[in-house]
Amino acid sequence: MSTLDSKIPAGSLDKKWTDYKNKVALVNPANKRLIDVIVIGSGLAGSSAAASLAEMGYNVKVFCFQDSPRRAHSIAAQGGINAAKNYKNDGDSTFRLFYDTIKGGDYRAREANVHRLAEVSANIIDQCVAQGVPFAREYGGLLDNRSFGGVQVQRTFYAAGQTGQQLLLGAYSALSKEISKGTVKMYNRHEMMDIVKIDGKARGIIARNLVTGEIERHSGHAVLLCSGGYGNVFFLSTNAMGSNVGAAWKAYKKGAFFGNPCFTQIHPTCIPVSGDHQSKLTLMSESLRNDGRIWVPKKIEDAKAIQQGQKKANDIAEEDRDYYLERRYPAFGNLVPRDVASRAAKERCDAGFGVNPTGQAVFLDYAAAIERYGKIEANKHNIVNPDKTTIIKLGKDVVKEKYGNLFDMYMQITGDNPYETPMKIYPAVHYTMGGLWVDYELMTTVPGLYALGEANFSDHGANRLGASALMQGLADGYFVIPYTVGSYLSKDIRTGKIPTDTPEFEAAEKEVKDRIDKLIANKGTKPVDYFHKRLGKVMWDKCGMARNEQGLKEAIEEISVIRAEFWENVRVPGSANEFNPELDKAGRVADFLELGELMCLDALTRRESCGGHFREESQTDEGEALRDDENYAFVSAWEFTGDGQEPKMNKEELVFENVKLVQRSYK
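-> structure tokens emitted (667 positions)
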């Protein structure tokens, strides 16, 4: 078993990051001009890291497969970004954000990394305000906050229901400034195909120009992977269709350990599946749980009538509605963490109380919020004894201002008006807490290869709290990597330009071309999506919201069969030397077919329930996740041992010195 050095600084938790910054090795400005850094991905983590490093003086190359960095999937985040500023004077603090994140992740995250994230969170808001991000503000001009799941304070900053878009535009503006100066060279429509190692260090990449098909070599003194998560292994997810695991998976096969691959998050508020025609699912922001109430009918006959189209939501009397989250978790109600809310919805639907034709949906109701806001507005306008119509109109105006784009999106997709009738929602794959294993400096087990944002495993444990993804991506890019990468690059100031005409680059390029040629030459009869859908069904059924030993063993066998059939019978039209989206997709699905097996293996070996990883054999009498801290308080870091060989699991034992390991309770 390989030794994992997490490089956690000594000292008290609240001093570790400060002491690290005070002592870390630096690169002087003149020497930074001698250093090349490659950044893969242009979302929040990638754009913020690239802009920060370029402004410091490094030469930066950025690669994204989209036509513009503005199209990165970070743009899809809706609800907000957390920060411990205590603007609401409700008891928030750096420690409370740290504790909520550790608890929300079911005590499966590294304390030092999480506390650092909480420390820099306030800086992120100041940075983004300075960039002009239009956060929502109260009447007096102060930044507004709202509630999110898993916490009892209001710490989420937001820009209506498009926070990710606004934050990405802020980071993109910083990146664009560096592009115009020439310190960043931007490669749009390029996909990283492999990592190149020289003398054990990451020294470059092989990339493919997705427009021309040309294979390119690019060298650098360090490579930063900011390529996002791997939720599309399930085929149907809230991720953009192009989101993939390719960059991280290539790094894994070049020696970077993969941490906790089975830790995937199911988001409770998504528009339900409507049929086999769908290629992705649509997220309705968790911010909607801030004001909405989730319910199903109390009576099974009412649920059956709704499923059969004989009744509608508004036909169910108030006393006949089961607000099951409020009933089961009175302290947090509708704001329990995502994994808890998702399992509760599944339990109600499995019991027959679902509210759409498939029985796989629950209601998210805004009637009470509209009335509450309407009464407040009537008071503000000094309207005495307002009638119900006036209250509803005023309330709808408030809801439209706070959530209007989300309501419009729901209406356009479903045809239902959520101002008049409750939304229908159901859990769906959303985020992956697993990712490349990194140490405190965000370096993988390959020297010079870093992973930032959702591409790494580090901050969220077994379940991510809502509004923390944007926080981590920007924290890693703006406030962590500019310090930590310098520690490594300070030893490279005499290395000089790294040539690309070396045997290592040649071998990597040949491997990439051989794989592409194999896909093109394969004269199968089935399209790529045929295999991706089969994989997704296996993953959802047997490694989704609930897992058990038998199902996981079956999944491993079934995925092996699908993978063999893929390489025998996949059909990729066109050629390699042209714009060929089906070829791009084929390479990504090939990676998913390997990753899926590792995810199931990881889930099989972790014989406990924690956060989003719910083993049916390990649950409390009330159906909650039951951890086994004695045997599983560790990070599973998987090591590639060769194609066709079972990977080796390494462990990073998690040490908790500042929080007490207890059974999570949101009651």
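The chain has a mean pLDDT of 96.
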